[in-house]
Each structure stands twice: as C-alpha cells, then as structure tokens.
C-alpha cells in the first residue's frame, strides 16, 4: 500500500475513534448537541467593557487633575456626583447583562443612551485628556445599542429562565424554505443555517437526541448529512447537524448567503414599477 494511502487510512481511523469517544462522553454526561451557548463571547466582552467604565473614568479624572499617585479619596473629591452615579450604573448594567434576565437588559438599554449623551457633552466641554476616554465611550455606547437591539441577541433576555431556556444561538437563523428528506420523510424548512434547521413536522415519531439522515440541495449542491433532533414542538422539529467537516460547513454557509442574495434581488425586482 502506498504511503499516502496508509496515512489517509490512519487519519480516518483516528478521526473515527475520536468521534466514537466524543459520542460516548456526550451520552455519559447527557450533553445536548445544540447550536446554542449560555452566553456568547461577544456578550461577555460587552459586559467586561461596562465593568471597565468606572476604572477608565477614575484614571481619566486622576490624569486630568494631575493626581499622582491616584489615591481613591482624592480622586473621588475631584469627581462630580453625576460621574460617580454614572460609574455605579455602569457596574449595574454589566451585572444586569451577566444575569441574562429581562430586567438586566432593560437597565442596560436605559443606561446606555444616557451615558452616550453625557459623554458627548463631556467630549465638547472637558479637557483634552478626558476627550480620549469620552470618544471611546461614545463609540462603545453606539456599538452596544446596535448590538443589543439585534433580535438574536435580545430574544434570550426576554424569555423566562427555566428548564426550557436554551441561551443564544451560535449561528444566525436564515428564513429559508427548501425541500429536504429526513430518513425518507419529505419535509420543508422554515429556517436554515450552517449548524442546523427547523422543519415543519407534525407528529414526529422520533425522540430528542435521535440521529437521522438528512438530504437536501442548495444552489445545485447536494448535501447528505447526519443530524440530531434537538427540539420537538407541536408544529415542527429543530435539528442540529452532526459530524460535519469544516469544508462542508463553509460551503453550506456560502450557498445560503448566495441564496439569500438571490431572494433579495428577486424581491427588489418585484418592487420596481
């Protein structure tokens, strides 16, 4: 046997053993294969920045007032009452986002526009050393408002925490309707992404966690994949793809983007007189 064939066979064997071990660990610890996570890294970064706002403002005031070293009591004397309140509310906003609750999101969305207006005023009126911190916080506030008003981000905050609370999606859903077969059952998707899909499927005979075969075509590319049933609703079933290699995932993601572009072009042509 050629060396390349031996190498491919060995890699295939190792990959197969690794997948078997991973499945055994998932079964043992009852890990659910869902394209979800409790809190994405992007949200964690915003929480970190909210918690850093008091420290940024503290040292900025110390630099502006030329307080070296920046002792706490001296810096607090130089800070205005409204600055102390805004710094305290920044910590509250970060803690609220960390709680993943509706009240936390509401507090953050109420505080951020106020901080934005306050920092714009500070940028226009304060000394140059303070301007750098104000500019940073202005851009941060704008980014935070845009980020947390995205439906995929704020939706989990609005849902009640409980056994059915599933966190944030790792992949954005695309409202795409295509035909596919699941174990020879012909279905139609309601949304589809590179991690899985939701299909209209009443009276599903399978249980959650069951692995099934999925076949469908996007942009003339045929996909034959494995998927696991992640959720069963009265109206349909959510399935997550399993054992998908990176090349297939990238290709599917690209095909879905092209399909959306085609849909937008068709809708724009219809709107034209």
Question: If you had to describe this structure to a student in words, what would you say it looks like?
Answer:
The structure is a single chain. With 273 residues, this protein is α+β, with helices and mostly antiparallel strands. The protein has two domains: 36-158; 171-271, predicted glycosyltransferase like domains (Thrombin, subunit H, Beta Barrel). It has eight helices and eight strands, in the order αβααααααβββββββα. Strands 3-4-5-8-7-6 form a six-stranded antiparallel beta barrel. A hairpin with a 2-residue loop joins β3 (179-182) and β4 (185-192). α4 runs antiparallel to α5 and α5 (102-125) runs antiparallel to α6. The radius of gyration is 26 Å and the shape is elongated. 20% of the residues are buried. Mean pLDDT is 78; it is low at 1-8 and 25-35.
Overall domain count: 2
**Amount of beta strand:** 15-25%
Largest sheet, described in full? 6 strands, antiparallel, barrel
Uncertain residue segments:
1-8, 25-35
| Strand arrangement across the biggest beta sheet | 3-4-5-8-7-6
- Tally the helices: what do you get? 8
C-alpha-based Rg, rounded? 26 Å
